[in-house]
Amino acid sequence: MTLTAVILLGAFHGINPAMGWLFAVARGLQERSRDLLLQSLPVIALGHLASVALVVAVVSATGSLVTGTALAIGAGVLLVGFGLWHLLARRHFRWVGMRLSLPQLAAWSFLMSSVHGAGLMLLPVLTRMPASHHGHALSGGLLVAGVHTLAMFLTATVVAVVVYEFLGVAVLRRAWFNLDRMWAFALVGAGVLTLVAAV
Amino acid sequence: MTLWKPDPTFYPSPRDAAEAPPEKLAYVAAFDRSAERPDALAVLDTDPASPAYGTVVGWTDLPHTGDELHHFGWNACSSALCPYAPHPHVERRYLIVPGLRSSRIYVYDTKDRVSPELVKVIEPEELGKRAGYSRPHTVHCGPEGLYVSALGGYGDDGPGGIAILDHNTFEVLGRWEVDRGPQYLAYDFWWHINHDVLVTSEWGTPSMIEDGVVGELLLGRKYGHKLHFWDLRKRRHVQEVDLGDQHQMTLELRPAHDPTKTYGFAGVVVSVEDLSASVWVWHREGSRWAATKVITIPAEPASPDDLPDVLKPFGAVPPLVTDIDLSVDDQRLYVSCWGTGELKQYDVSDPFKPVEIGSIRLGGIVDRAAHPAAPGERLAGGPQMVEVSRDGRRVYVTNSLYGAWDDQFYPDGVGAWMAKIDADGFTLDERFFPHGDDFRGLRPHQTRLQGGDASSDSYCYP
What we know:
The complex is a heterodimer. Chain A is mostly helical.
């Protein structure tokens, strides 16, 4: 059940054009090179992984200091707050520049995922993991981050290649559902559930 | 509130945008030269199936007088689909409308209404104190928000430059340039968005233009004659390209819409050597930028009796290329000769070898050519601001250049008119000729087409 959720969340991020597959497609189209597209995707996934792993590290460090209930309540409040901020604030991620080196692309992905709160959705999963042993929680958390990112990477690759080879970017006009707003609702929902389970 | 699906007027590529449905409305900036009555946004019906086709169907007076509306732009456009910071669920609904003389910037809402409605006024002090600029001119929606070029400094004559506005709140965020290098004069700007390159051009500072063209400055070759290339990401000046100081006033910039390309067209108003006008292509030459003259339009000899004072000593009419526009598919370039009263159509499929394939005469300092819809009327002014529909099939022109300059070149009155040309066959549409009292005594300048046009959107996908 938990593993399924982790994989589905990864797939959700993979499908979101803003999380990177679209950037990979654009880089490929710009240079008429599928190789460049395929090169870009692992780098984007790496940035995503770093963002998610950071959340894992923070949770595991915090978990070794406070009780499981306190951790869950903190996580729930954070999720609700972050989700509401995304829903209500009209700001969006800003970045200027199309011509990036691969390390810059990884940095872009890290920032984009972090601003999006990509790792936060793993909070409910992480707070429910046994926190008896600090090192154990960290490695378990990193496994979760890895599985999540792998799902994200595979989904993004399939979508990117299909759009690049067959559909074309015009599909964005019809199919680009506002995933960011849906994501914000989901964050709030997950936060509420975490809070309910904790108290 | 954001949308659930992308705004339908956003297109990933210029190829997709060329499939866009025809515009039903056109917004035209109109100003009162006497500054006694408010300037206005006039709305024209451009739907041939409508009974009101070719007439003014909407009108919004500004709250102040003396703004001198000139150019304007949209709050959002196809660049919202760009992959590095996509936000395509915003709406293209607000017009950002600078007053070139007053330095005020107005924001008008166009959604679900014909006549736009005022939602915000940015006072000259906000633009001045936050960005250090005055005389706002060109507006483009881009990666960091709204970019607005300005001709003058705040309290000082110069340098002119670019201010950044937040594209949600429309607050002035500040000056765009981090390092402006040798750039001092400003006018138009645009970019090669996928190459992180911004290009700017040069007209003159407020003191050089606001009381009309100054003969000594012109013959002294003091107006702008350079292109500037910038790093769009780092906001730094990279290189200037001097077209030669005989080429006075480098105005409109029309980069290729295809984001893989790195060339564009720039129009030059007049050469002080022979009164000719020219169009240049900028392009890469190794790792540097270069510019090549690809079109020269000669002056036409005329009797001094037919000429305004400013031209009598020369015995010729300069073409005065004051606007150019490139179709979204980068195949056609339209060149306005406001002095001779001519609109030229070029095939620019090879940008280095433009081929003139069409010409229309309307107005002109000497010709005063009439519109077929009113064959008895001698027209003043000439084709000036030119806008092309996204599908490239319709071309709109208006006839006023800039208040003080209108008066010099058309001292008996520039009048007011707008015309539409069908691009295939290059013929005037006899059903579309709002003129004279239709503009209620105001002079029409830039046109923006509903949903976007050839000079409004940037695309990140080829």
